[in-house]
Amino acid sequence: MKIGVRGLGLWGPGLAGWKQGQAVLRGNVPLADAELPPPAPACLPPNERRRCGPVTRLALAAAAEACVHADMDPAELASVFATSNGDGPVVNAILSAIVAGAGEVSPTQFHNSVHNAAAGYWTIGHGSIAPATALGCYDWSFAQGLMRAAAEAVIEKRPVLFVAYDQPIPGPIGTVRITRSAFACALVLDPDGAGHMQLDLQYGAGRMDDDTLEIDRLNDMAHFNPAARSLPLLAAIARGDATQVRLTCRPGHLTVRLS
To answer: I need a surface site. Which of 27, 46, 106, 172 has the fewest CB within 10 A?
Structure first.
């Protein structure tokens, strides 16, 4: 399955957008040891901007940059949002309220707890009626989401925005579901092959380990954040390599050839 990458977005520790992040992924600039809070989403009206949480701001920052990079109208793009953890802080707050006995949960917390919250804010912010999909596939959410978005683009014959994002979960869940730092990336995929890079996706049976990076701290980020498992592919795109990248995609694996 062949697809073009027209635009990219990136946000994470020491990675303040694709333009700055490219130099880090190429190994030209050291990775700064700093968490970067994502900007408030300019697309949302003030009331919605106040209601949305950090994980939504994270996803929308990467999505907006990818659309600008691709020079495409966000309202016209179908989208696929993939996250393993969802809004962990909100889920933790709701469970804590239940355990405390009061059981009082604010409507804002409740509607931020659903898995498609970021996708919903995105469509509201841009007045979009294009299809929007939200999925979660544990540690393989990036690879499964990429395959889902590419398939939609090829079958429907139109560009699709793909966004992958995850942030740490506080509280008791966070002690067993360990996620370090917040990370998001986004790609605008074009079925016509237009873009900065062409990807050829092939799904295979049997598990294979993810490819690794030469920069240890990026490997650590990829190991402890499901969305950051995209980093080997993003690094290959940043370098402009004609190569291939393997991604675990349970129950099999995804091989992505770049040209």
So the answer is: 46
Residue 246 inside a domain? The answer is: no
176 is in which domain, residue-wise? 2-197+212-239
Element (H or E) spanning 98, and its range?
helix 88-100
pLDDT, one tens digit per residue, over 27-81 is 999 998 788 889 889 899 888 888 888 999 999 999 999 999 999 999 999 999 9
The closest alpha carbon to 88, from 174, 2, 186, belongs to 174
C-beta contacts of 205-213 below 8 A and 24+ residues apart:
205/251, 205/252, 206/252, 206/253, 207/248, 207/250, 207/251, 207/252, 207/253, 208/246, 208/248, 208/253, 209/246, 209/248, 210/246, 210/247, 210/248, 211/245, 211/246, 211/247
Q: Residue 95: what pLDDT?
A: 86
Number of folded domains that form the chain:
1
Phi/psi region, residue 10 (left: phi>0; alpha: psi -120 to 50; beta: rest), is beta
User: Is 218 a domain residue?
Assistant: yes
